[in-house]
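Changelog-adjacent note: as of this version, every example in the card shows the full chain rather than a window. The one below runs 216 residues end to end.
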Amino acid sequence: MKSQIVLSAVSPAVVARSPSWVLLPAAAAPLLLLGGWTLAAGLRREDFNQVTQPLSALAAVNAPNRWLMTFVFAVLGVCYVLTAWGLNCAALPGRLLLAAGGVATTGVAAVPLPSQGPSVVHSTIASVAFVALACWPLLARRNARRTPWALRPMVSVTVTLLLCGLLVWFGIELNTGGRIGLAEGIAAGAEATWPLLVAVATLRPRRNGESAPRDH
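Full-length structure tokens:
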């Protein structure tokens, strides 16, 4: 009888999983980023090049219709924070880093680029956001048995390397003055899409007796 109680405590029949509401902010992030970027750039089709100019230029001080991209950055950051809150199957350090990336993304909206020239504060906040959103999968990984595929160590490490690789490409384009917008858009889009894939993976039903990963 005691052994059955111990076994039940270690391998519960009902396993905790991410709540279904997490799909809302997780799915809203990439849709908001792509839709907002496309719409904001479309409104400035004559003086904005999506391939060579950064996304932040759409929200720069004195930029036409800057409110639109400012709104996108602000809500996008909130989506990341809410997604981090809901992904209770992911390891806590990863969730905290994802939330930090969301807060920094909102900071990008609060500290826009000046009308002319660079901004050290803006660049620093944007860098924190990009790095946090690229590295959170590594800290969110799980080693538990039957871990959802998106949180397995090999997958988490691979995704982190891919996202960091996109950031390196963006950095190169930023320093050479080349395809800045293209590189930034792909990097930001990939970072916005991965939390959605993790959310979907952690909502998949598990078989009875499967142990749930827990934070330590």
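Structural remarks: The CA atoms of residues 80 and 180 lie 23 Å apart.
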